[in-house]
Design brief:
Chain lengths: 380, 624, 189, 169
């Protein structure tokens, strides 16, 4: 609904009233709205409202050549675009039986983890800002920017990398890239104390985040929670471990867990995960030089590429949770159907609507950010 | 990594610790644009010289951001696959994905590291750019994302076709190549970028992009239908065409480290023609025949590609066509010049059969000028087409060339063509020298090699020409295969004398050629007579050039007609200075099958227009 | 219970259902084709007895030539580490406003989101689903846009105007006798 | 008229010449003879190849005019000096070509061979005269004539190639 068409309602029969937050509101992640019914400052019920960002990507993809879709998939989730490219490529590869050369697989994982780092930094900042702490958001964005510098060097683009392609990645890593990546990881580790002091063990934040937006294990499974949000409920599930893809089974990493299922647990899981990603990236820096060979397998001329008829449900673990593409080919030059299943389809809608109930209005924004909801995954 | 316990709320002093940050040096970033990364995907650059205007970038562009613009002052050269179209980018649509760079056949289009452009609302035209060597603001810009072997998206390597090994083919006339299988053909067709350079360069403008696409879609009948739009000699051209299309093909690029081979357009044509049953081809072609008769009659002299193409077009339009052929079979030079191993008889027969099935009548063994005079044809028919080809071989006329064992290549090939299988129609020499570096020289050398192999189990043939090997007019494949078959090729030699002892040819004396052309590119060979060699041979075969046998015209008509440097002068539409006579094919254009086909169409068009009153031929030549 | 045991158990379980076809595509991917009437029962069994507690997604594919919609329920078992995709087809009901099917919201809560999405985008009404209302396309009154017979590009071209550019360089080239030769819309493959 | 006759009588006449103008007059005379020969041949050959003979007529006429103009030019010496500073290379291509008897109905190749032979002969003749003449204006004029004939021959060789070597396919 367009905001101008909405009238805030005070319900005359009770003390309840409705307000509308978003779609342009600093407490809302992305172009998204949330309709709340309140009694005083307590949320009686909430209703997610999408549609402000709808670009019809799934429809668009049916009208474009297989390869042309590479340019639009990263746009589905701006803060964490790499998994979108990778999972689309994986689905096309699965249907057309293309084997990605090992070096290409390693470079893909490199990007996936670097993207996770960048996305988590972004989320720390956003989450902290909803509690009134703005410094972490400046830091998060500034430190993410250094990751974007690396992406720019690796892929030629800062935000929309368009670097993965069915068959592998478009070109090899530049000379000296791994050294610079290593320096960035050193830097991130050197920042850990600062972040801890400023955010993760700062009472100003911790006291605001604890006990907010609690999800218990049963609810988490029932509502289809995935990713860090699920792991913050004590459930050790991760697509990288349970349904491994690329070369994740050759990597050594832990799956950080928390039990409380609240906003604090979620941000702590992300904190730990960020440093697990650093650990993975260090392994890649060490191992990648010994993986020789091409970075991509040849594909047919993209202008005359009929992907064989078939279907694939490909999943990856994005920074936000389970990301899957259901891709169908009718044997033609364009996808017959691509269905994007983003983790936020759950987190930003039903989970948020449920968790918000009983919360106080000032915590709604924090709940949404703590779920790391990415509205474009809902709107597509 | 330091563990944080969920229960840990941190020291009450923790917030105060953050005061330390006031003591840290602030980080300052300049407001100036930062230099972008080395492979940044910024605004486009286009090397206007390298760009061939193929519009492949436009086809891959996922945002429909590219418009092809005609730039008149740039080179337009269809024969070499260059159009004067250049991509213009709408930066209101472009998303800088650089797929245009990755797919560009030549590597002309690239992205720069320039990324700042600001304008007011009324300067919105500045979003539409024709990229050139300099950046969008006309300043020198560094390259960003460019083509490398890794991000190149085109399949540069041709799909291999099975063929007989030199050992297997050396002693027989079986067709060398196997032709594509369905899978190979679809794979090869999939490499095409649909630029249409092939269509523009083809003398008869075959719809190659369309039939390649049809083959890729698996629809061979549609492919055949497209072919017959412009070429009733598709079996022949599918095997022996000079394939200018492949020269012009956008994928025919040198200068790329990964190499780039043109689409095997000729082999795809061969594949589609062979993939559709002969009777079905006749049905497809017959659909285009006019149901109405015009009552006009046309005589065509010569049942080669030009004559029969004209005949095909004219019967299609309801005219009555009679073809006269001096030799016992049709096909002209394609039968009596090209050996079976390149063009099997039955392929040619099938082409001719389709043409005859449309109602073309052919009278063989009928030599105009002897049995029937030109004057008679003029009286009996509404129009006459002279499509007599170049049947007579040129001689070097060096001393000794008048000897009976100095033979002309075309004459020998005609003898071979008139005989079947292992019979040549002349005595096979144990040793022979062929003078000439064209396909005819290779044809006779390779035919002779096969006979030698059969009879003597060894090949003793030297091919020699004044050109350097790279400049031989023959196809590269022909040269390669000749060498494989045991033929010796000695380039850069000028023939001086046929050596004769006791009335027997003993060899050919040659001098070394130091250079062939002058600075204007005209023929002016420089010889070094101190480097003299004699190649032993029982037979010397001349394959240096051909000419038309125009004696059939008779003196009166020869005098009536206008001529141009030894050839009958024709207008663009093939009409001669005699209002009832047209001429087409090799005898006016020089030797080339597909050119002859194109010519056949041209005269048919002109005759049809003339006979149906759409154009009156006044006998005057409208010069080109 | 380890993965292998679950898989064996799954196979026996699946035999209980009528008209079912099981394709094991890989270690962790199972495709099941099931009649529309048996699908809810299958999901019930999968969740209740076979540890497929996570409904990852419901995908819808329009097959207008077959006059059918294909619905695919992607279920994940955290224990068996296996993704089972249950495919079923329902009539497209092209002559009516909606195609119809039953909701599985009472089995899997995430179905609520996907069913609403499919309702909006494909026009399939899920009986007893709690959210059969507009969500993303609140102000759209046209046909369900993800149906194959809705041509988004044609809609855009009919509804919006493209800006025409005419920069100086183009005017100069046009005066020389050149100019725009091939527009992007002429070459869409 | 046979070639040998032309050559011998020409040589004798030229050797008898003592002034620049005499030489040029003689040379002009040769060109005239050639021109008239081709002009007489033209109607006899097939119209198909008549262009070749007609071109030869034009060529010889041009030479004739050139020599005649020079002979009448008072600054004859200076002109010739200017011309011989850039001698053309002599190609040995046509060395092997026999001088055929033209016969009744010569073809294009025969005519070209004849013309080439004729230019060759003239060229050789002027060359040897230049070599046997001491330095001075007389030597210069022979060199000039040799050079002119060489150029003409080179041009004919190109035509020969274009006609005869139509490029074996």
């Amino acid at each position: 609904m367009r905001p101008e068409n909405y009238q805030a309602v005070r319900l005359p029969s009770s003390n309840e009233y409705e307000i509308f937050i978003g779609p342009n509101h600093p407490g809302i992640e992305g172009n998204y709205a949330f309709k709340l019914r309140l009694d005083g400052d307590e949320v009686i019920s909430g209703k997610a409202d999408a549609g402000y960002l709808h670009r019809g990507f799934e429809k668009l993809m049916e009208g474009r050549l297989w390869i042309q879709n590479l340019a639009i998939v990263p746009r589905i989730c701006v803060p964490d675009p790499v998994p979108m490219e990778v999972v689309y490529s994986l689905s096309v590869e699965a249907i057309s039986d293309i084997e990605v050369p090992e070096r290409g697989q390693w470079i893909r994982v490199l990007q996936m983890e670097l993207s996770r780092v960048a996305s988590h930094l972004f989320t720390f900042g956003g989450h902290a800002a909803t509690t009134g702490m703005y410094t972490p958001s400046y830091w998060g964005v500034a430190d993410r920017d250094l990751a974007l510098d690396l992406f720019e060097e690796l892929t030629g683009g800062r935000v929309y990398h368009i670097y993965n392609i069915p068959g592998g990645v478009r070109r090899d890593i530049p000379d000296g890239f791994l050294d610079r990546l290593g320096h960035y990881l050193d830097y991130l580790e050197s920042r850990q104390n600062d972040y801890d002091n400023l955010l993760f063990t700062n009472q100003v934040f911790v006291k605001r985040a604890r006990g907010i937006g609690v999800i218990n294990k049963e609810q988490a499974l029932e509502w289809g929670v995935t990713g860090p949000n699920l792991r913050a409920c004590g459930l050790p599930f991760d697509v990288r471990r349970d349904d491994p893809y690329l070369i994740y089974d050759q990597l050594d990493f832990d799956i950080p867990l928390q039990d409380a299922g609240d906003a604090l647990a979620r941000i702590l899981v992300r904190r730990d995960e960020l440093f697990q990603s650093v650990r993975i990236l260090r392994q890649i820096i060490k191992h990648l030089p010994s993986v020789k060979g091409p970075v991509r397998a040849p594909i047919p001329n993209p202008l005359a590429w009929n992907v064989p008829a078939g279907e694939s449900y490909s999943r990856v673990e994005s920074s936000k949770g389970e990301l899957a593409y259901y891709t169908v080919s009718d044997g033609g030059p364009k996808p017959y159907r691509v269905h994007v299943r983003g983790p936020s389809s759950m987190h930003a809608v039903q989970v948020l609507e449920n968790v918000a109930v009983g919360a106080r209005i000032e915590d709604v924004a924090q709940i949404m950010f703590s779920l790391d909801a990415c509205p474009p995954e809902v709107d597509r | 990594m330091k563990k944080i316990k969920y229960e840990d709320i941190g020291s009450i002093l923790n917030p105060l610790k953050n005061l330390q940050f006031f003591a840290r040096k602030p980080i300052t970033e300049d407001l100036e644009p930062r230099p972008a990364a080395k492979i940044y995907r910024g605004f486009h650059l286009n090397d206007m010289e390298k760009c061939i205007g193929c519009s492949t970038c436009q086809k891959i562009c996922d945002n429909a951001a590219i418009t092809m613009v005609k730039v008149p002052h740039l080179k337009e050269d269809p024969v070499n696959g260059i159009k004067n179209l250049r991509p213009a980018i709408d930066y209101g649509r472009c998303c800088w994905c650089a797929l245009c760079v990755d797919i560009c056949p030549t590597g002309a289009i690239e992205l720069s590291r320039e990324y700042v452009h600001v304008c007011d609302g009324d300067e919105v035209d500045s979003y539409f750019i024709l990229p050139q060597e300099k950046g969008i603001h006309g300043t020198e810009q560094e390259k960003g994302w460019t083509k490398t072997a890794s991000n190149d998206l085109l399949a540069r390597t041709r799909t291999d076709m099975g063929e007989m090994t030199p050992e297997a083919r050396g002693d027989n006339f079986k067709e060398i190549v196997d032709g594509y299988t369905d899978e190979q053909a679809i794979l090869e067709a999939s490499r095409c970028v649909q630029c249409g350079m092939c269509h523009d360069s083809c003398p008869t403008h075959m719809h190659a992009p369309e039939y390649i696409r049809a083959i890729w879609k698996g629809n061979v009948e549609e492919a055949v239908e497209w072919m017959y739009e412009t070429n009733p000699f598709s079996h022949v051209c599918g095997r022996v065409c000079t394939h200018r299309c492949e020269t012009a093909c956008s994928l025919n690029q040198t200068g790329l480290p990964q190499g780039s081979e043109p689409i095997a357009i000729r082999w795809l044509k061969r594949y589609a023609m062979d993939a559709v049953p002969h009777e079905r081809i006749k049905e497809i072609v017959a659909r285009k025949k006019s149901q109405e008769k015009t009552g006009k009659t046309i005589a065509i002299i010569g049942a080669g590609p030009a004559g029969l193409t004209a005949a095909f077009d004219l019967v299609k339009r309801g005219h009555d066509v009679q073809v006269f052929e001096a030799l016992p079979k049709g096909g002209g030079m394609t039968r009596y010049g090209i050996p079976y191993y390149r063009l099997p008889d039955d392929s040619l027969e099938r082409d001719i059969d389709v043409i005859q099935s449309m109602g073309v009548k052919i009278e063989y063994n009928t030599r105009i000028g002897e049995q029937i005079s030109m004057a008679q044809l003029h009286t009996d028919y509404d129009a006459v087409v002279l499509a007599i080809g170049l049947q007579s071989g040129r001689s070097t006329r060096i001393p000794g060339s008048e000897h009976k064992d100095t033979r002309s290549a075309v004459e020998l090939l005609r003898l071979i063509g008139n005989h079947d299988g292992d019979e040549a129609g002349f005595d096979i020499p144990r040793t022979a020298v062929v003078i000439g570096g064209g396909n005819v020289a290779m044809d006779i050398a390779r035919s002779l090699a096969r006979y030698q192999k059969q009879r003597f189990n060894q090949v003793e043939i030297i091919v020699t020409a004044i050109d350097e090997l790279e400049k031989f007019p023959a196809d590269k494949e022909e040269i390669k295969e000749s060498l494989e078959e045991g033929i010796t090729i000695i380039p850069s030699r000028g023939p001086q004398q046929v050596m004769i002892e006791n009335d027997q040819i003993k060899g050919l004396k040659t001098w070394h050629v130091e250079s062939v052309f002058d600075s204007d590119g005209r023929f002016a060979p420089q010889y070094d007579d101190s480097d003299e060699q004699i190649y032993p041979a029982e037979m010397v075969i001349e394959a240096i050039g051909q000419m038309a046998e125009t004696e059939l015209l008779g003196n009166t008509l020869t005098e009536q007609l206008e001529w141009e440097r030894g050839r009958i002068k024709v207008a663009q539409d093939g009409s001669t200075s005699a209002p009832w006579l047209w001429s087409a094919g090799d005898c006016v254009n020089g030797p080339d099958v597909v050119h002859a086909v194109a010519d056949g169409h041209r005269v048919a068009e002109s005759i049809h227009a003339c006979l149906t009153g759409n154009k009156v031929s006044d006998g005057k030549l409208n010069d080109e | 219970m380890n993965c292998d045991e679950i898989n064996v158990w799954l196979d026996t379980l699946l035999e209980e259902i009528n008209e079912i076809k099981v394709t094991r595509k890989s270690d962790r991917r199972v495709r099941v084709d099931v009649d529309a009437s048996s699908l809810p029962a299958l999901l019930e069994l999968l969740k209740g007895k076979a540890s497929y507690v996570h409904l990852s997604a419901i995908s819808c594919v329009d097959w207008p030539d077959d006059e059918e919609f294909e619905l695919v329920y992607h279920c994940w078992s955290y224990e068996a580490k296996s993704l089972l995709s249950a495919h079923t087809r329902i009539p497209r009901n092209s002559s009516e406003e909606f195609a119809r099917y039953v909701s599985v919201y009472d089995i899997y809560k995430p179905a609520g989101f996907f069913e609403r999405d499919i309702y909006e985008m494909f026009g399939i009404y899920f009986e007893s689903s709690p959210f059969m209302e507009k969500f993303i396309l609140t102000e759209w009154n046209g046909p369900p846009p993800m149906r194959k017979d809705f041509d988004a590009e044609a809609y855009v071209n009919e509804t919006f105007n493209w800006a025409e550019y005419n920069p100086d360089w183009l005017q100069e080239i046009t005066e020389e006798g050149g100019g725009i030769a091939i527009r992007p819309e002429d070459v869409r493959l | 008229m046979t070639n040998n006759n032309t050559e011998e009588s020409g040589l004798q006449k030229l050797q008898a010449c003592t002034s620049l103008k005499d030489i040029l007059d003689q040379a002009t005379d040769f060109e005239r003879t050639a021109r008239d020969f081709y002009a007489a041949l033209s109607p006899k050959v097939s119209k198909r190849i008549r262009y070749l003979v007609d071109e030869l007529v034009i060529e010889e006429q041009a030479h004739y005019d050139l020599f005649k103009d020079l002979a009448n030019n008072p600054e004859i010496e200076a002109q010739i000096k200017l011309e011989i500073t850039t001698p053309p290379g002599n190609k040995r291509f046509s060395d092997c070509i026999q001088l055929p008897d033209l016969g009744d109905n010569p073809d294009d190749q025969t005519i070209l061979q004849y013309a080439l032979g004729r230019e060759q002969a003239a060229m050789d003749q002027y060359h040897s005269l230049a070599e046997s003449t001491p330095e001075g204006p007389l030597k210069d004029v022979f060199t000039f004539l040799a050079q002119e004939e060489t150029e003409h021959k080179n041009e004919l060789e190109k035509i020969y190639y274009e006609v005869v070597h139509s490029g074996g396919v």
